[in-house]
Specification:
With about 375 residues, this protein is an alpha+beta fold. Helices cover about 20% and strands about 35% of the residues. A hairpin with a 4-residue loop joins strand 4 and strand 5. It is globular.
């Protein structure tokens, strides 16, 4: 402290003693500070600093709603399922994670500090080594064990893993009129209690549907009654699409294989509803999600156009009506030619609408997949 007057040093020490430590801040003031953090990844890192900070974030649904409104959740990366042949007894099989390449240091640190390789699953007692990812919600993944049909909910970001529970008792769907089928279970989280979750399993026979709901509060399955629905036009006994359902604004959705009807389940009242879909969707790739403003929508691909449908009510009946169509041909060609500047991109890659499909719709963003064949002087290569 050479060169600093003694009285100035004393004033600095007195001021330092008067300043309260950060852990003495009131919870309201602490959350106001957290609200100004730049991203969800930053909030997670801050909340994990100590139990008091984590408790402050976890115990305030209103804070989490305000934070989500100001900071939409970022895309940390993508999970890819392991190829089918590895799902055999005693052969390890885990989904593969590919992080998004971002310059945000907090996002990068969040991915490095998490367990996106799912190594924590290996610590579960008496569980087989093969896992399949069946759903993802609020940063958590729902995984199913291929060997014994058990389920587990895991948060890769915080490394939090729930106890394993059975997919369903053997007699869960007794009472069907013969054949019945199950589709992938779906994961639900509560806005009020982030530690509470539900898993919904849909089953159907020839013309009826019902759901079983597992709750982390009771750790038991609840079976809902059978509900009659319109028959499918196809001969396939599994007439509801087997792949994962969709989720938006407190509703779960499933689609008929012939894409004539959309089944919805209100997760608050647990009531089913069946809506007829527009005829032009029956040959299209589409997905249901939310717009940037939070409204429920359907987004579909038609050649190189993207159409958006919004729900409306007519004479008390819910219908889906076309809101707008956005052409993607010029934008897709620009992106492909810029991203592949050193590769000859044939026009047929851009024109092949059969290789353009909608994967997901979240927070106003549409995630699409384009698969084609690139050809240059060296010969064909997949792209």
């Amino acid at each position: 402290m050479t060169g600093v007057p003694k009285n100035r040093r004393q004033r600095r020490r007195s001021k330092a003693r008067r300043a309260p430590p950060i852990h003495k801040l009131g919870e309201d003031l602490l959350l106001e500070i957290f609200l100004r953090l730049p991203s969800l990844a930053t909030l997670v890192r801050a909340a994990l600093t100590c139990r008091a900070w984590r408790r402050a974030v976890a115990s305030s649904p209103s804070f989490r709603r305000r934070f989500r409104a100001l900071h939409p959740p970022p895309l940390l990366g993508l999970f890819f399922e392991a190829p089918g042949p590895v799902h055999t007894p005693n052969t390890p099989g885990f989904p593969t994670f590919v992080p998004a390449r971002r310059r945000d240091r907090d996002l990068t640190a969040a991915v490095r500090g998490g367990d996106f390789f799912l190594t924590s699953l290996e610590d579960l007692p008496d569980e087989g080594p093969c896992w399949n990812m069946v759903d993802c919600c609020r940063g958590c993944v729902l995984l199913m064990n291929w060997d014994d049909g058990s389920l587990v909910v895991f948060n890769p970001l915080t490394r939090r893993i729930e106890d394993v529970f059975d997919l369903s008792p053997e007699d869960l769907f007794d009472g069907s009129r013969g054949h019945y089928a199950q589709v992938y279970p779906q994961l639900l989280f509560s806005d009020e209690d982030p530690a509470s979750f539900r898993v919904v399993l849909l089953a159907h026979d020839e013309r009826r549907i019902r759901a079983a709901v597992f709750s982390s509060d009771t750790w038991e399955w609840l079976l809902l009654p059978w509900v009659d629905v319109p028959a499918s036009s196809g001969d396939d006994e599994c007439w509801i699409k087997y792949e994962r359902g969709m989720q938006a604004n407190g509703f779960l959705y499933w689609v008929y294989e012939d894409q004539r009807y959309l089944v919805s389940l209100n997760t608050a009242t647990m009531e089913f509803c069946v809506t007829e879909l527009p005829h032009f969707l029956r040959d299209s790739s589409f997905h249901l999600g939310e717009t940037k403003d939070g409204a429920t929508c359907i987004v579909y691909s038609d050649q190189l156009n993207v159409g958006v449908l919004m729900p409306t009510r007519d004479d008390g009946m819910e219908k889906w009506v076309l809101d707008r169509v956005v052409p993607l041909d010029r934008e897709l060609e620009r992106v492909l030619r810029v991203g592949l500047a050193n590769v000859t991109v044939p026009n047929q890659l851009v024109a092949n609408h059969n290789d353009l499909s909608v994967l997901a719709v979240q927070d106003g963003y549409v995630y699409k997949r384009a698969i084609g064949v690139l050809a240059d002087a060296a010969g064909p290569a997949s792209g």
